[in-house]
Amino acid sequence: MKIAILSRNPKLYSTQRLVEAAKLRGHEVRVLDVLRCYMNITSHRPSIHYKGEDLAGFDAIIPRIGASVTFYGTAVLRQFEMMGVYPLNESVAISRSRDKLRACQLLSRKGIGLPITGFANKPDDINDLIKMVGGAPLVIKLLEGTQGIGVVLAETRKAAESVIESFLGMNISVLVQEFIAEAGGSDLRCFVVGGKVVAAMKRQGAEGEFRSNIHRGGSASLIRITPEERSTAVRAAKTMGLNVCGVDILRSNHGPVVMEVNSSPGLEGIEKATKKDIAGEIISFLEANVKPGKTQTKGAG
């Protein structure tokens, strides 16, 4: 099988592990910088060029598209799909998961546990918005952010009012969510491949830090998840239409709540915490599912 990996940096742990796992199974693999790809959008003969070369003949593509290049990255991935290349995650599913508001609405529609969430553009009553999510402390999130960037904990009503007013004054829309204090600055990362949770870890934020991201000094450890948490992760992945994703869950007093569904989850933290070959699981999934022109989400949602 000939596999392409869309990644801006071939030296990243996740990219290197996917290359290693694919080659170990006898596949031909190539890493492509998504921003160096350019497209010929022509009826019946769509093509992608890369440094003067016409890219053709790939059987599967693994998108590792950073949040900052989502728009262009999903356009390139969509072009590959039009050429009949099987995507590990489809472009529409990635776009869906990257839009925090859209993701929350879709998860809510399916009855999947979420923190109480408010969204506003120019509310006449910020106090009512704060009250709606249970008051302070509360979490304020930018619609586009990753690795904990653009996430603020407002510990008092006054602080919440100031932060929300500041963002809205700059025409920046925000999500306002209840703060799950009982989570104690930790969350669960459930790694889903092909509708199954293949690994799970607990991420604990650094002392005094409410965000549990490993990139922000958090630590990771092996954890046994409950059947309800496992079911929540699988349902969240299915709702987004993602074959492979990391589902971040908080343990709240009213059951598991989903914080985020990550369409390009890193492999380093989860592989080191669980000692599992996650890259191998991903390649194994491709081997079982690759068919020309086969897509999963059919553009729904």
What does this structure look like?
- By secondary structure, the chain is an alpha+beta fold.
- It folds into three domains: 2-95, 3-Layer(aba) Sandwich (Rossmann fold); 117-179, ATP-grasp fold, A domain (Dna Ligase, domain 1), CATH 3.30.1490.20; 182-287, D-amino Acid Aminotransferase, Chain A, domain 1, CATH 3.30.470.
- The protein is 32% helix and 28% strand.
- It has nine helices and 16 strands.
- The protein has helices at residues 13-24, 70-82, 91-98, 100-109, 126-132, 157-169, 227-240, 268-274, 278-289; strands at residues 2-6, 28-32, 37-40, 47-50, 53-55, 60-63, 86-87, 117-120, 138-142, 151-154, 174-178, 186-193, 196-204, 219-222, 244-252, 255-262.
- The protein has a five-stranded antiparallel beta sheet, with helices on both faces. Strands 2-1-6-7 form a four-stranded parallel beta sheet, sandwiched between helices.
- Helix 1 packs across helix 9 and helix 2 runs antiparallel to helix 3.
- It is globular, with a radius of gyration of 20 Å.
- The two termini are 31 Å apart.
- Residues 297-301 have low confidence and may be disordered.
